[in-house]
Amino acid sequence: MALNRFFYAASFLLFTLVIIASASDEKKIAAGNKENLLSTIIGIQGLVYCKSGPKFIPLEGAVTRITCQAVDENGFETAPFSFLSDACDAKGYFFATLSGAEVEDNRKLTECRAFLELSPSETCVVPTDVNKGISGALLGSYRLLNDKKMKLYTVGPFFFTS
Which band of pLDDT confidence, cut at 50, 70 and 90, is reported for residue 106? Predict the structure, then answer.
């Protein structure tokens, strides 16, 4: 009788462990699929203006720099890397992208910041730290653009002055 109870308890315990393990595997598979659905492309957008007195004038041709920290496959921090945005359009709008294929050696991004880099104006060339244009605006929250498979971050607006 005691032997039957032991086998019943052991069978029940084994059955419970199998259920928990399979549920855990399903969660891992679901998390993997969700990760695959998430973007491998990062987009950064914002505006750059020239602050001239009380006026804000869109700064066509301005460029921003995005600098990212990353870790390697072993979790060790790697050297930071930077890339430049496209030049701002006539409305002062800039856009930059980074795809997973552009990140070397399976590095995982841990933090990215956007900085003012270049003003094409001869009279409006001094960067300001408004919205962290000099110290670096941290890429925080994003919108997920499912149709483009992109995480879109917005920073700024940034300002140069005379």
Answer: low
Compute CA 71 distance to the chain's CA centroid, rounded to the nearest angstrom. 14
Which helix or strand (DSSP H or E) is residue 52 part of?
strand 41-52
Work out the angle at residue 91's Cα, subtended by the Cα atoms of residues 85 and 92, and round it to the nearest 5 degrees: 35
Query: What pTM value is reported for the model?
Result: 0.72
Place of tokens 């699929």: 33
DSSP, collapsed to helix, strand or coil, labels residue 92 as coil
Q: How far apart are CA 155 and CA 111, in angstroms?
A: 14
What is the C-alpha separation between 63 and 117, in angstroms, rounded? 6
The first and second tokens of residue 139, run together, are 């890429």
CA dist 153 and 113 (Å) reads: 11
Distance CA(82)–CA(124), nearest Å, equals: 24
- Identify the helix (H) or strand (E) that includes residue 127: strand 126-127
Q: pLDDT (tens digit, 9 = 90+) per residue, 138-156?
A: 998 899 988 888 999 999 9
Q: Tokens 């998390």 label which residue? A: 31
Question: Beta strand pairing status for 41-52 and 93-99?
Answer: antiparallel
pLDDT of residue 158: 97
